[in-house]
Specification:
5 helices; elongated; 2 strands; 2 domains; mainly alpha; two-stranded antiparallel ribbon
Length: about 130
């Protein structure tokens, strides 16, 4: 498989710039602590980047929640809608910590709704204050 490479650990700036190759338990630790692209992309590449592409299609669909934003501002008011945005932000941050690609598709959907709501609420709040 051409995309599978040796895991690497980035050396500190003061040390040499060549990556260090590891094996065994150190290899698993390197994948957790390393910022190396091959370690991060290994899980996504196993599924032919299906979930990455799916999230790429979900995130631009923020325009589809615009009718729900108007309804929620009308029913809940500005303060209630701000609290709903806070809850969505907490949900997004909690789901982004789960190390599962399937859950990350849900995280992308929550992020899409959250982003649309937060920018709309900022505009609504500024319009009401001024």
């Amino acid at each position: 498989m051409p995309w599978v490479r040796e895991p690497c650990v980035r050396a500190p700036p003061s040390a040499s710039s060549t990556p260090v190759k590891l094996s065994g338990a150190s290899e698993r630790q390197a994948c957790v602590t390393s910022s190396c692209l091959t370690c991060a992309a290994r899980g996504a590449a196993e599924d032919d980047f299906y979930y990455t592409r799916l999230a790429g299609y979900i995130i631009p669909c923020g325009f589809s929640v615009i009718p729900f934003i108007d309804t929620s501002v009308t029913r809940l008011g500005t303060i209630g809608c701000c609290q709903m945005v806070n809850v969505m932000g907490i949900l997004y941050n909690c789901t982004s910590l789960v190390p599962s690609l399937r859950i990350q598709v849900f995280t992308a959907a929550v992020y899409t709704v959250y982003r649309a709501f937060v920018f709309s609420m900022i505009s609504t709040f500024n319009a009401q204050v001024c």
